[in-house]
Specification:
The structure is a single chain. The protein has 13 helices and 18 strands. The N terminus is likely disordered. An eight-stranded mixed beta sheet has the order 5-1-6-11-7-10-8-9, sandwiched between helices. The protein has a five-stranded mixed beta sheet with strand order 13-15-16-18-17. The longest helix is centred in the middle third of the chain and has 83 residues. The protein is an alpha/beta fold. Among the domains are: 105 residues, Helix Hairpins (Orthogonal Bundle), CATH 1.10.287; 147 residues, Histidine kinase-like ATPase, C-terminal domain (Heat Shock Protein 90).
Length: 546
């Protein structure tokens, strides 16, 4: 303190010392108050003795996640830039979300890297100004065209990350079944495996995993669903000075466009639709395909016109050839018929002549000639009947008939002599049905059985076995005898017209039978033959209804 020398003598010595003490006490109190207030006013982040610790979710890509055990993501980059902007020593830790909340409440950490602004958390945190937005989208398979809103998911199973904020919205609709998963990637895999109809997740998180894991065949359906949450940094409740510094730093980053650049790095590229190469390829292929189809249609129309002309010409030529073939067959048939009839007619003619000449003189000779006449007239009648049967191969009344009943009627009408043993058997007789004319099948079976009886003579064993084929497609009738068998040279001839090895045979029975069976989409063939007998097989399509 500066005083003029002359003034001191006017101040009493006791009073002067008292004033000096008072001044010293006031100054001391003022300094104490100043330093105490300074400690409260100074921001929390100025202390260089203890660094600040901010924690984040280690499974919330692309916001915060561990990449090769190092923190990475939008929130991590933002905090690193922010700490430089406000000149603060900030350490970053990533851990499970539940542990982040626990350590924040117990004071082990100072704040959170990023968190949706949620009123329920305001009891223990203070939020910074928003640094992003979190919205939710529906993800479905690319071929799904009916899901476009939460309403359209009623009656389906929806995959949701168990920590997702959208769960509360979904729980309001009781008709949606929620399947909670440990992570968003697990939910997307369940969608890919068709364990869920859709996945509802934070759009940027799901898009990040779809891109990183190269998951194909998934699309966003409809518009964003549920509420849109603001995403911000958070500090422990009461650290208002730290919050002010953070907001100040965010303002700086926003003004110099740094915040925008960080957003573009982590979100912008995926939000911009890539050039639709696939669509271009598909459209090009589609247009090319349509053009090819049009060219093909024109070519087919032209080809059809040409084919119709050629078909008409071929049909005309074919008709002419058929007519020629008919004439040729008719000529051959007429010659064979004439040859076959000439012999019995000649015998009949000679017998009539001899009857006129000798019959009245010798009664025994007369009766012999009459028997010859009867035999030859019967043979001629058989030939004519066989020819008529051959011309009537087409069925007149087709129906589902029982093969067993037809066999029994044939055997009943034939009145086979007792010296021939009959062994008749059926497998699943109620199923032995075919669709054809009853009289046609009767004629075929009678022809084959008659041939067998004639081949055996007066004694032998006739075996008839009817059964279904292994695949139930045909009804089979095997007819076997113990006759003389068929010679090797005759095996390929027995189904030819007019071929016969019997003196009284017409050579029409088996050819007619073959025509009838083949007309009904079946087969008849010689199964086996030897000197001990022969077996013929008749196969016809099985008819299921009766």
């Amino acid at each position: 303190m500066y005083c003029r020398p002359g003034l001191m003598k006017y101040i009493p010595k006791g009073r002067s010392q008292l004033k000096i003490k008072r001044i010293f006490i006031c100054l001391s109190i003022s300094l104490i108050i100043f330093f105490v207030l300074y400690g409260f006013i100074t921001p929390d982040i100025i202390s260089a003795e203890k660094p600040l610790v901010f924690a984040g979710n280690d499974r919330f890509a692309p916001y915060s996640y561990l990449s090769d055990d190092s923190p990475d993501g939008y929130s991590v980059d933002l905090m690193k830039i922010l700490s430089a902007a406000i000149n603060a020593d900030i350490r970053i830790k990533l851990m499970p979300w539940e542990r982040c909340i626990e350590e924040l409440k117990t004071g082990k950490i100072d704040g959170l890297l990023g968190v949706p602004i949620y009123k329920e958390r305001e009891a223990y945190v203070n939020y910074s100004r928003p640094v992003a937005e979190i919205d939710f989208a529906i993800f479905v398979e690319s071929g799904n065209s009916y899901v476009n809103s939460i309403k359209s998911l009623e009656g389906t199973v929806v995959g949701v990350h168990k920590e997702s904020l959208i769960t509360e919205t979904l729980l309001k609709d009781k008709r949606i079944k929620i399947l909670e998963t440990e992570s968003v990637i697990e939910a997307l895999n369940k969608l890919k495996n068709r364990e869920v109809t859709a996945v509802i997740a934070e759009k940027n998180v799901a898009l990040y995993y779809i891109q990183q894991k190269k998951i194909e065949g998934i699309k966003i359906a409809g518009s964003p669903v549920g509420p849109v949450y603001e995403y911000a940094l958070a500090v422990r409740k009461g650290k208002t000075n730290l919050l002010k510094e953070i907001n100040r730093g965010l303002t700086i980053l926003e003004e110099n466009s740094t915040l925008k650049k960080v957003k573009r790095k982590w979100f912008g590229l995926r939000l911009v639709e890539p050039f639709p190469w696939k669509m271009v390829v598909f459209m090009t292929a589609g247009i090319s395909g349509v053009m090819l189809i049009l060219v093909g249609i024109l070519w087919v129309i032209s080809l059809n016109a040409t084919v119709k002309i050629k078909t008409g010409q071929i049909q005309q030529m074919s008709q002419k050839m058929i007519e020629k073939d008919k004439l040729a067959v008719l000529g051959k048939l007429a010659g064979q018929i004439a040859h076959e009839l000439r012999t019995p007619l000649s015998i009949i003619n000679n017998s009539v002549f001899l009857l006129h000449k000798e019959g009245s003189k010798n009664r025994e000779l007369f009766e012999k000639r009459l028997r010859i006449l009867e035999d030859k007239i019967k043979l001629t009648s058989n030939i004519l009947e066989s020819i008529l049967s051959y011309s009537r191969v087409k069925a007149e009344i087709a129906a589902t008939i029982s093969v067993k009943e037809c066999i029994e009627e044939v055997l009943k009408d034939m009145d086979i002599q007792k010296s021939i043993e009959q062994n008749i058997s059926y497998e699943k007789e109620e199923s032995l049905t075919v669709f054809m004319d009853f009289h046609q099948l009767y004629s075929v079976l009678r022809n084959v059985i008659l041939n067998s009886i004639q081949d055996m003579g007066k004694k032998g064993r006739l075996t008839i076995h009817a059964f279904l084929s292994d695949d139930n497609s045909t009804v089979n009738v095997r007819i076997c005898d113990t006759g003389r068998g068929i010679t090797e040279s005759a095996e390929n001839e027995i189904f030819n017209l007019f071929y016969t090895s019997k003196i009284t045979g017409t050579g029409l029975g088996l050819p007619i039978s073959k025509s009838i069976i083949e007309t009904n989409n079946g087969r008849i063939y010689l199964e086996k033959t030897s000197k001990k007998g022969s077996c013929f097989m008749v196969e016809l399509p099985f008819s299921q209804t009766k």
